[in-house]
Design brief:
313 residues; two-stranded antiparallel sheet; 6 helices
Length: 313
């Protein structure tokens, strides 16, 4: 298990979740072939995403290559999401050669949260999220680069430029409810603070629609590597195993130091939840206060480099 002790942005996660989940509605999402947009129709064609609920408590996961992937989430804290059939307009600057641009959810204020898929469908899924804290937006420039660079063979690259568009618009750390989305995930969720506090954890695990959007996306694509961008501690925290190796490579390519961060109480952390769900590397990159265009290019190249490493691991 990765050893992480990150600061206010993130962390690792050791505590086990108090299971406060009354309505553990398992979510079954029909996907893959049924939701995929033909790459030639990304900008103009609406796609229907079908979501059905089930009472089954059996956890079933079929390989990504299957025509239909059924993922039944039994996590007590998972909230049923709504993914209505939605027109999927192309996103400026992000849809050049995308396999699809999918609206994976909406923010509290109704802003779309979109995922762009590039590369090799059915390949090793890699998820990159540019913004989770709305006032930490440097990752956007990296995502924009990742939207245009050639994707290495065998990588199924998923780009979420921002999972917190409301916070980004203000800008503020939390979403429109004042919830720190990086304390709202179902892993070890615990109450922190009150609305308006910097690390307010929300009313319950995955109480926020932005969190639900990512929870569901992760269930669908099962990323083999997930990266979140934050600011501005300018470091990677040390990890063990494959994740540690990926971080060392990323650090070598970008010049970010690997330094432990101590202090703080971390529950409901996104990267930790994803790591535990997938059993795969999932971590944050703390950028500095500013990021030049050149640095953004370097980070984007580093992502693709370690994506290939993760695929070979
Ligand atoms: Zn942060």
């Amino acid at each position: 298990m990765a050893v992480l002790a990150l600061a206010a942005c993130s962390d690792s996660g050791g505590s086990t979740a108090p299971s406060t989940a009354p309505s553990a509605a398992p979510v079954t999402v029909a996907t893959a072939a049924t939701t995929v947009l033909p790459s030639t129709a990304v900008a103009t064609t609406a796609a229907a995403t079908t979501v059905a609920t089930t009472t089954s408590t059996t956890s079933t996961s079929t390989p990504p290559a299957a025509a239909t992937t059924t993922i039944t989430t039994t996590t007590a804290t998972t909230t049923t999401t709504t993914l209505p059939p939605t027109a999927l307009p192309g996103v400026a600057g992000l849809d050049g050669d995308a396999l699809q641009v999918a609206e994976i959810g909406r923010s509290v204020d109704g802003r779309p949260i979109r995922a762009v898929e590039r590369g090799t469908r059915g390949g090793t899924p890699v998820l990159v999220i540019g913004v989770i804290h709305g006032d930490e937006q440097a990752g956007v420039a990296i995502l924009e680069q990742l939207a245009t660079l050639p994707v290495p063979p065998g990588i199924d690259l998923w780009l979420v430029e921002s999972m917190n568009p409301d916070g980004q618009a203000v800008p503020q750390r939390g979403n429109a409810h004042g919830v720190d989305l990086n304390r709202n995930f179902p892993d070890g969720w615990g109450p922190i603070g009150a609305p308006g506090d910097g690390q307010y954890a929300g009313t319950g695990p995955a109480s926020e629609p932005e969190t639900q959007a990512i929870v569901n996306l992760v269930g669908l694509i099962r990323p083999a590597l997930t990266i979140f961008y934050h600011q501005d501690l300018n470091r990677l925290s040390p990890s063990n195993g494959v994740e540690g190796q990926l971080k060392e490579r990323y650090a070598a390519l970008t010049g970010l130091p690997i330094e432990r961060i101590t202090g703080g109480t971390y529950t409901g952390v996104a990267a930790t939840w994803i790591r535990k769900q997938t059993g795969s590397p999932s971590f944050i990159v703390e950028l500095g206060p500013t990021l030049s265009r050149e640095q953004a290019d370097t980070h984007a190249a580093a992502v693709l480099d370690i994506a290939t490493m993760a695929a070979a691991a």
